[in-house]
Amino acid sequence: MKSVSSPLLPLPGLAAGTRRQTWQRLFSLALPICLLICFTASPAIAQDPQQQQEPLLIGVLDLDANNVDAGEARAITDRLRLYLGQTGVYRLIERNQMDNILNEVGFQLTGACDTDECVIQVGKILGARKMVAGSVSRVGSLYSLQIRLIDIESSSIEQQAFRDVTGIELVLTDATQYVAQQLAGAGATPVVQPQPAARVATGQINVTSGPSGANLTIDGQPHGTTPVMIEVDEGSHEVVVEMDGYAPYSQTVQVTSGRMVTVNATLSEVPSGFLNVTSTPVGATVLVDGNDKGRTPISRLRVSTGQHRVEVRRDGYDSYFQDITVSRNRRLEITATLERSGSASIMLESNFNGALIFIDGVQRTETTPAGNITLKPGPHTIRVKARGYSSWEQSVNLQEGSQEKLTVNLIQKSRIGAGFLGMIFPGGGHFYSGRGGMGTFVLLATAGAGAYAFMQSNAMVDAEDLYWEKYDEYMHASTTNDAQRLHNEMSDLHEDWDAAQKSASTAVMAAAGLHIFGVLHSAIFMPRLRPVLTSSGPTLSLKAGTRAGRASLTLSIIF
Questions:
Q1: DSSP-assigned letter for residue 412
Q2: What's the CATH number where 90 sits?
Q3: Beta carbons of 218 and 250 less than 8 angstroms apart
Q4: N or C: which end of the chain has fewer CB within 10 A?
């Protein structure tokens, strides 16, 4: 067998593959060495040494209060403790724990430690690394917070911080947080605290008026009655003082922060009168020229002289309007009867045609039977009247949109009653049956006849007296001539007496006859209503009887 030897020249790509493998081996050896070097060097620079340390144990003493309320000073101390704990640099000893430790060793801490020696001594007893002490002072509205951080081991002040702010609110939210950050230094964790809204600069307006008790509005907003002091924002404000019977007073004032502006409003009286307003129902709103003046009843409402328009309104009722003229020092009375708004209706059913309908005392144009009489909602009195019938009356309380159906039953009056009343009182039967005109005629005619009969009766009595007087003279005549003369005179007087008797009898008979006529007329001719037809055609009525000994037949057709 023949052997074939390989060529001396390298094959293509063989050298390149060998070099790639060589570099891969070198990179594999170098990478672990680099990583080892990095990890061993990084602890010295990776983290802040202060963050790796445990929080320092510190104690916070109550702040010394200078011209500050003790309660406010204690609240400021508590807020400072809170923010110091939130920095992450310090671990605070609880207040109760501090008191218990000091009590166990018999250390009496009265008030605040105002010297560094006192603070250091307390820190050593508590075993604290550092102590926080300081003061809070107030001058006017300016609060000053001065705090110092004392290192117990070196017995020296390590750091101091202070902050001046205006107002107790900023002390709690701004100054204590700022001081805590300063004492914690660069290692402190930022405290996320919502920033308080910017304080609005305010001042006061003190308003008085003559007379007092006037209504005050500032920039269109009501603020009670004078005298009054109102706190407002800094800037320009429109002050208006008003009172019934007086001209309005207005003034524009400029308010500066922290300052008080005084407004003395001298009101000028205007000529006025008084108004009393009542309504049915009560509790309605009274407006004079569109301005609300209260609820009814209102008495002695002062209104300026001149022309005004008064409105009385209430929910569910139609408004009442009245134009008035007010005179100086005079009083006007307004009585408003309010009608319910909306509408309702009634329907009156009856067996008779033509009866008169009265609603709340007012006669309607409709007669019975009637349908769909439109009324206002509320109480109403319905009355139906007809001659010869007793009145029918009923009260209803209509609701809005309702329809009431009423049945009217009229009862005919008695003929016997009419005759009896006509007998004892001329015309009484006619008045009883509702015929006032005929009753008046019978009354006047009977009275006139009676008066005439009375006059004739008196004349008859006078004629009789004259006759008997002359008869007495005749009986005492002393001569024949006197006797003859007196006898002739007696004959004339007797004729007069006879004539007077006849006139008196005629008058009495006429009066009696007229009275009897009235009685019979009122009893016999009683008025009657036409009945409501139950069919569409006319009604026939046939009556038979006897009259004056003769038979009679009567046919009636009612349309």
A1: B
A2: 3.40.50.10610
A3: no
A4: N
Cα distance between residue 288 and residue 311, in whole Å: 6
- Residue 287 domain-assigned? yes
State the residue for tokens 């250091």: 120
Q: Which domain holds residue 327?
A: 274-337
Question: Which amino acid makes up residue 558?
Answer: I
- From residue 482, how far is each of 304, 472, 488 by CA, in Å? 98, 13, 10
Q: Are residues 118 and 212 in the same domain?
A: no
Q: What is the pTM assigned to this prediction?
A: 0.37
Q: Which residue has the tokens 């037949």?
A: 553
Same domain, 151 and 62: yes
Q: Alpha-carbon distance 27 to 140, whole Å?
A: 75
Residues 6+ apart with CB under 8 A from 439: 427, 428, 429, 430, 431, 522
Rounded to the nearest 10 degrees, the angle between the axes of helix 436-475 and helix 480-524 is 160
Query: Which DSSP symbol is given to 340?
Result: B
CA dist 65 → 142, 143, 147, 207, 214 (Å)? 14, 11, 12, 37, 45
